Structures
1.
Amino acid sequence: MIPYTRDPQQTIPTSAVKIIGLGGAGANMLERIALDGMEGAELLALNTDIRTLASCLAREKIQLGVNLTKGLGAGGDPVLGHQAILESEEQIRAAIQGRRIVFLCTGLGGGTGSGAAPIITRIAREEGAFVVVFATMPFAFEGKRRREQAETALNELAVLSNALVTFDNNRMGELVLAKQGIHEAFAAADHMICESIKAVIRLVVRPGLINVGLDDLMSALRTNRSRCLFGSGISSGKDRASKALKNALNSPLLDQGALLKDAQTVLVHLSGGEDLTLFEIELLMQRLQKFVPDKAHVLFGAAIDPAMGDSLSITLISALPEDYLASAPRESLSHHTPENPLLDPSQGFTPPAEKTVEPEVVKAAEPRPEPEPVRNFIAPIPEFTAAPEPAAAPATEPAAVSPLSKFRRAAATVAAIPSLFDDERPFAEPDYATKPEQAAPPAPEPEPESPMDAFTFAEPAPEPAATDEAPTAARTEPVYAEADEPDPEPIEAIEAVPQPAVFVPGPKRRPSISIPWGKTKPAEFPEDLAEPAPPVEPEAFAAPEPAAAAPVEAELPKLKLGIKSGGSQSELSLDSAPRGRFEGESPNVFDGEDLDLPPFLRKKK
Ligand SMILES: Nc1nc2c(ncn2[C@@H]2O[C@H](COP(=O)(O)OP(=O)(O)OP(=O)(O)O)[C@@H](O)[C@H]2O)c(=O)[nH]1
């Protein structure tokens, strides 16, 4: 077999390529290209601003309008930029002479770029060069005037250049977070622009197996006023072909591939190491076909570059008319379209990270931490207070427990709820005054397990007994006496309460009570809690003591109360009485705690 060595073809010698950076933005782009390395191509910086020019990395530099602007910039005035370039026309013509291709990079909207770019394009064309212009359009925040200046220049460039590629800085700004600095926004934009420029330049200057010519590039980019669609991806290892394509489609300039569906011409360029296989190329092109219309003209190029090792890169270039992009509804440009099979997550596509939400918003949107679990016995209280619905005694309640014990237990339980009393606030009250019909909505079924059941859900509460005061008035204006205030109208039953040594349902946190049904009614302890009881308002929970007075007296004959209404108080003899416990009563133990012991004694244990 006769070995056949194929000489790599060189489309354009690099010495025939000139990359020009015009104005401040152009200088930045050029610098990045220089830093990334663009072997062979000549870099030329043009600017009115001498300071920017001096710091530029390009080997060749020309100051524009030396006499006109005297080293200062054009101050955002395109007329100055236009005159400045005319002043330096001969120098520029000499620098471009003999070049076959000129890439002009500039930012439109300012004075130098907008005013000088059309003139440079004209000069280069007159010198016989093929001119590709890469231009940025200003950010929206830069104002209407800049945008208009940019538009005017763009229209001229569209006529004068061979190919015009625009990058909207607004769109580039999407590459960075909204709160990142303007430097980051520019840097991200520049990076994307430079990648595109480099890819295009490489495409036409790199030796290839299947070459892409300038005519191909022109047809890919040529539309009257077009925006460049550009995507570049690189990958290595297993599945490198599909991964590289995925990366290329992720480019924001392609709208994640969606924009390609309307492209008329798409230029595809593959580059890989010496192990690049035909199978990979086929696979990649097959997948790509799902993104481009059937009748689209696909221009294909491939190059072997040993320096790429086992990496494979793909570059996609196309253009769409600005008019089309402006009129297309945003949703139609979305990448989440069924026509994008490669972007289907089920096929392994990972959508690009959504724009990150502001930290504070994330915080705000974060689910709140779970509130501390509410203790069971507290939960039914509001229900009860809102609607004293009757409820059967819980099944777990031992039948032998006397009503008194029930009451004591409940009173002790209430006393042991510090949170209910510590802040001395009443429960949330229904708005009786404004919406009386809503005063007692049907209460949900109480939880039978609740230790409050025995106390709170007793029997249907009858209407309060008629008193001198209207019941509603008493309910809407419950009386909460201050802890230190003496009760204005002493009630006999309260006076007769034995002293704490005898029976203390709980620490005397609320020495005064409110009697919702009116103070004129003497406190009575219900003989049996199973019997209809007067409606109990929230605050009544806090005041079991006075109600307990009468039955305690009745059930403890051994305790001699030396208190008589209106009489003087004598000493209570306690020697023979059992302390803290009722004689003859078995202790009420609940949850390991003796409920007959005063809570403060229990806490001391
Ligand atoms: N992507 C990108 N755009 C830039 C950058 N700097 C400026 N621009 C854009 O380019 C437009 C023109 O800015 P410059 O290039 O600084 O202006 P100029 O052409 O030098 O004109 P004068 O400053 O008036 O002399 C601005 O309105 C920006 O929208 C940059 O570093 N990156």
2.
Amino acid sequence: MRKINEIFYSLQGEGYHTGTPAVFIRFSGCNLKCSFCDTQHEEGIMLTDEKIIEEVRKYPATMVVLTGGEPSLWIDNGFIDRLHEAGKYVCIETNGTCVLPESIDWVTCSPKHGSKLEIARMDEVKVVYEGQDISMYESLFAEHFYLQPCSCNNTAETVDCVMRHPKWRLSLQTHKLIDIR
Ligand SMILES: C[S@@+](CC[C@H](N)C(=O)[O-])C[C@H]1O[C@@H](n2cnc3c(N)ncnc32)[C@H](O)[C@@H]1O
Ligand SMILES: Nc1nc2[nH]cc(C(=O)O)c2c(=O)[nH]1
Ligand code: SF4
Ligand SMILES: [Mg+2]
């Protein structure tokens, strides 16, 4: 059984896969408490893998996004295998503090100040910009680097930072801009 906060169908709003239809599985709880966190994730119900897969199969999209809370606290290789058996492409949004099942197809790591990264591989780095020094993240081994305004409130500062640090690209929380989930 895994503790699930919600399962919903939307478009990936952030990062490299922005605009792609995806089923979001939001797991309950987190090991960090970011002051800016935009998600109420603590509530949840325990679901079997059968039930989770049944829910995911209701939607036509190939992409599934594991998020939370912190999804890495709840998943293992067996769970990813089941999503693959259902024909899904599995992405994860993680703070990077816990080891991940190796078979996940796409890893988005959003490192948080003061927490140690434990993951071996990531496809994209997505930093929530609060005016901090981002140079320490530039040595991470990833293909794509995204800087995301915090709650859509500091977009001009984020644009300015990206233009000064062109290794990075802007990620907007587009679902908030168009008022979808
Ligand atoms: C709610 S978190 C869940 C996944 C995981 N715990 C993490 O932090 O990556 C999903 C994404 O939203 C980002 N995020 C959280 N609060 C935000 C905010 N107020 N503004 C912009 N992005 C935010 C996180 O950094 C992460 O990339
Ligand atoms: N549309 C949409 N895209 C997202 N990408 C990452 C999200 C998250 O909360 O992890 C998220 C979300 O909550 N909604
Ligand atoms: S790590 Fe992610 S879910 Fe946890 S508090 Fe921070 S932003 Fe929210
Ligand atoms: Mg979100």
